[in-house]
Design goal:
291 residues; mainly alpha; 10 helices; globular
């Protein structure tokens, strides 16, 4: 039985801007490409990668022979020195080091950051449909799901209790996303649940949450989040359909265990620094009294 007009239209609207739509766009783009890169052999590919790795390690130091030698200081995209716990890459597509290097060069291209020409050749050579599909897939944790993730029984009980106690201004959506360099980033996360807590119900302080989210923003940027954001905003404006948007999102309640551990660690460090600063100020005042 053929679909009626309104039903077909609804299916079309559900499809536009969906993950399926984005994957189809990647496939169509590669179908349109009328060339296949010539096999340059493992030796030459290794040499090209060496240039890319040198750019990744040294760009910004303006060393002799580097692309930024004698250049004024300019923006260098984030260079992560670790693999985030949320990042799961299909090893048949790319290793972590290759995936990280590829996206760093893509971010350099996006920000007009100058790199060696051979680095660009390496990036273009390894770029495939499978790599682009994987690149879209790994950012799934940063896309708001249609339904909140299922939480553990203990976490869900804490969240339910916070809903009962919650007061105005204590929602995740009230946290301003700060400490980042991303233009046109959403002001806050679209999450109207209460602010997460430590065990015992004490709310995690907003500055700590802002710092934690800024770390997640940096990881998101490092693997193409900012590029996805700008692309989604452009397509959304063209189609007048907000479903295309790929704004930054992070589920703090689903990530509660890691959030608490990092919050405790940064709080301890902050208290230690404050103690050192107070001791320094006291010593300085005492020295001034003797002058």
């Amino acid at each position: 039985m053929p679909l009626l007009g309104p039903a077909a239209k609804r299916l079309r609207l559900l499809y536009l801007g969906s993950d399926e739509w984005y994957f189809d766009q990647i496939r169509e783009e590669y179908l349109k490409r009328a060339y296949q890169p010539e096999d340059i052999g493992d030796y030459n590919l290794k040499i090209l990668r060496g240039y890319a790795e040198a750019d990744f390690e040294y760009l910004g130091q303006r060393l002799p022979g580097a692309p930024d030698f004698k250049e004024k200081a300019y923006y260098i995209p984030p260079r992560l020195q670790y693999q985030p716990y949320w990042l799961e890459i299909n090893p048949r597509v790319a290793s972590f080091s290759t995936f990280r290097l590829y996206h760093w060069l893509k971010n350099c291209q996006h920000s007009d950051t100058k790199v060696n020409t051979n680095s660009i050749h390496w990036r273009n050579y390894i770029e495939t449909q499978e790599l682009e599909e994987e690149s879209y897939q790994v950012l799934a944790p940063f896309r708001k799901p249609d339904q909140p993730a299922e939480l553990s029984q203990e976490t869900q009980a804490e969240l339910d209790f916070q809903f009962i106690l919650n007061t105005p201004g204590d929602l995740i959506s009230d946290i301003h996303l700060d400490y980042h360099l991303v233009e046109h980033l959403n002001y806050s996360i679209e999450d109207h649940r209460p602010i997460p807590t430590f065990p015992g119900g004490i709310k995690i302080e907003i500055p700590v949450l802002q710092w934690y989210l800024s770390c997640k923003i940096q990881e998101w940027v490092a693997f193409g989040g900012e590029r996805a954001l700008e692309k989604g905003q452009f397509i959304s404006g063209f189609h007048s359909h907000k479903q295309f948007k790929r704004e930054f999102y992070w589920d703090l309640w689903e990530d509660l265990e890691n959030l608490r551990a990092e919050a405790v660690a940064v709080t301890i460090v902050t208290c230690a620094l404050q103690k050192i600063w107070r001791k320094y100020q006291t010593t300085l005042r005492e020295e001034n009294l003797w002058d």
